[in-house]
Amino acid sequence: MTSAAHDSVTTDEATRTARKAVVSDHGIVATFGEDPVAGVAAMADDARDSARVLGRATRAWKDRALLAIADRIERKRDVVLAANAKDLEHGRVNGTSTALLDRLKLDAERITGLAESLRELAALPDPVGGFVRGSTLPNGLRMRQVRVPMGVVGAIYEARPNVTVDIAGIALKSGNAVLLRGGSAAEESNRALVGIIRDSLADVKLPVDCVQSVDEYGREGANALMAARGKVDVLIPRGGHGLIQSVVQNAKVPVIETGEGNVHLFVDHSASKAMAVAVAVNSKTHRTSTCNTAETLLLHSGFAHGAALLAALDRAGVTLHVDQRAEAMLPAGSHHLRATDEDWGAEYLSMDLAVKVVDSMDEALQHIDRWSTRHTEAIVTNDLANAERFVAEIDAAAVMVNASTRFTDGGQLGLGAEIGISTQKMHARGPMGLEELTTTKWIVQGDGHVRA
């Protein structure tokens, strides 16, 4: 265990003899022996002990922790930026893509955003203990279903140091301990942030092992986390297609799948020029490295301003991958490529956009159904019936009507920070906030009732 002054839970020394406590320049961290399976198992045991304490913590106690983390992140801004600069330099030397470098980058504005997201979480209601449903049965039994923490949550992600803070914050507020695998690309940034979080937990007398990182074990640590069924209650991957599918296909722990975003924007024939241009340009260019960025534009052939819309995207610096009909609308000298089937399935995460002209709503819906990753789909229209049909027939976690696809985001939708965008159809779908990291418990109260 870490220093007893900072930890109020007990340990089973027989299973944790390989562990030793150290204090880094960035705060309290924990080091285990060399065996990844045993090390991750010991971390999970500590997380379980810590989750029991956190699960009965009051809202005020948890909110103090969130505010303490937010304040310390801002005070330690220079430490975090210095660590992040090392990760960025390492990424450039190793040829990391521009999109991944953008996700990896922290600057003063983004650090302020991390702190503010934690403060927003603190201001949200505590989901733990929330009433779902209940009644008094004819035999007098009183039953109710309430929200309770998952317990121990694992997260595997890549090149996203902001996710370290987001997941830790949501886990703490919802009463869960968390085991993080943030990847080698953000190793220095994550080490600094995890140290800050653990120091802050110590300040408010919550168990520091509510937040731990398995990064010291590298890929083997990730594999051990995926195999820790019975010790980890749920695992959430966040990243590109390869990472997510690797976790989904190999994990023995239950997984909430977060998805890549091949996001479509359909501009209906009735759409206004100004709205279509504003929504399309924002959906594509606001921040291209995110999963809610538009990747395909479907233009109704009856939309009178298709040429103006494509010209606006071209002026914004977007490389258009167009079909033959869209190519005919392009301004002279535009930077474009002829689209292939590979483009219709692409999640570019860059200033690239596939463009196809369709002759009907039916054709647009068929194209989306074939190529969608079920993340976010959007329509720009001035026809209420078309909007209602689009909403009814689209199978996606989020559907936007006359709004940028960039609004598929926990913070933008008032959920505080988010743990990811779920594209599955289980209990969590779309932006995952506090409630999505809870499950439920049935509580039944009687007066000596027995079943006949």
Automatic annotation (TrEMBL):
The keyword Cytoplasm applies. It comes from Kocuria aegyptia. Catalyzes the NADPH-dependent reduction of L-glutamate 5-phosphate into L-glutamate 5-semialdehyde and phosphate. The product spontaneously undergoes cyclization to form 1-pyrroline-5-carboxylate. The gene is proA. The keyword Cell membrane does not apply. Keywords: Amino-acid biosynthesis, Cytoplasm, NADP, Oxidoreductase, Proline biosynthesis. It is found in: Cytoplasm. Pfam families: Aldedh. This is Gamma-glutamyl phosphate reductase. Pathway: Amino-acid biosynthesis; L-proline biosynthesis; L-glutamate 5-semialdehyde from L-glutamate: step 2/2. NCBIfam families: PRK00197.1 (NF001221), proA (TIGR00407). Belongs to the gamma-glutamyl phosphate reductase family. Residues 26-305 form the Aldehyde dehydrogenase domain.
